[in-house]
Specification:
Bound molecules: glutamic acid, magnesium ion
Strand content: 15-25%
Distance between the termini: 30 Å
Helix content: 25-40%
Amino acid sequence: MTDLIFAATCDLAGKVRGKAFPSVQLDKRLARGVGWTPTNVQINCFDGIADSPFGALGDLLLIPDQTTSVSANFGTRTERFMLGDIVDLDGATWDFCTRSLLKSALARLEKVGGVQLLAAFEHEFQLKGKIRYSGDSYGRAGFEAQRGLCEMLMAQITAAGLSPDSIMKEYGPNQYEVVIDPEKGVRAADAAVIVRELTRSTARHLGEAVTYTPILDPASVGNGVHIHISFLNPDGAPATYDAKGPCGMSALTASFAAGVLKYLDSILALTAPSVVSYLRLTPHRWSAAYNSLGLRDREASLRVCPVTAKDPASIARQFNIEYRASDAAACPHLALAAILHAGIQGIEEGLSAPTPAEEDLSLLSPEDLAARGFIRLPETLEASLERFSENATVRGWFPNAFADVYLAHKASEIAHVAEMDVPAQCAAYAETY
Ligand code: GLU
Ligand code: MG
């Protein structure tokens, strides 16, 4: 047997794609990568190919980054993979490399805000197949029935150099949630990809199948990806909290939060990027339907999270804001890049702190919502893409060609499911994510 390492990118479709090479070639591959094709960026989540400006032309390199190395030992087999960056043959960053897009957002955060990012992804997923543990929200029976999967997954997460926080049987039928500790910068998004892949691998090893689809059954709850964000000063001191600030937010956090909410409708196409994402983003599902800040409110798009610490230094370290309008159809790097750019834009514009909503916004008329500065978020992927497309500021955060390629990519995905009814759409997404 030849040990193989899979060099991978998490692409515009949020899919992990790449090529494997024998592990004895590692040094060479870390320097020169594996060959990659520009038009691959237009492979949608259903394997259709969208209109591509590249056609059959061009060559790229996918260079694995050893800091992302995963070697998941399942006894009978070891799955090795690494995430990497896509560059052209001269070594220049490729405009559609999601990891590089995040790195450029992080550089802007450092330049404009003078801070580093610390982020943790909280993931919900469901076991596929017949509903087994109904009537068991947060229950022990459903947890115990999958203790093997939960323990093996946590062990694999640890072996990958990440730090598991908790795992549970979530509210929905067959639904589980896995949470890891925060990581700095690009590693936070790498970690999200690694957790998703390890969940799938662990389940496969145990003869189970899981899905990270945004929503499996419109009559029930969705699978959210909640992104917890905090900031560190260059000396490593926490910069997110101010005891005297609005809802405990530092001035930097307050402007960042205001930016995220101001641009939320235009970045949603990047953080909730599937057709069925919009079945999840409806009121009373504990997801996100309005551009609102919430103080510990799980219906808010952006939530100021509770802290359990009592002393000021620990409170400052724990304090974070949580972006809830995202799901696992989104590439974590791309979603995080979009959220960061929106927040940084808020810092640049000197926006003042948003006021938290403290009521059920679905009861307000559009006029009352508007009077309070709130909007109902786009209700379809098409509407969401239109906001993205129309917003010159948001398009400007990305390389020139990015928006048009992304819009064509998503148009082909929409076309793929256009003739399906909702249950068939949900089934198609459950299959691919
Ligand atoms: N399932 C909900 C979502 O779609 C989140 C539930 C929770 O607060 O954990 O985001
Ligand atoms: Mg949850």
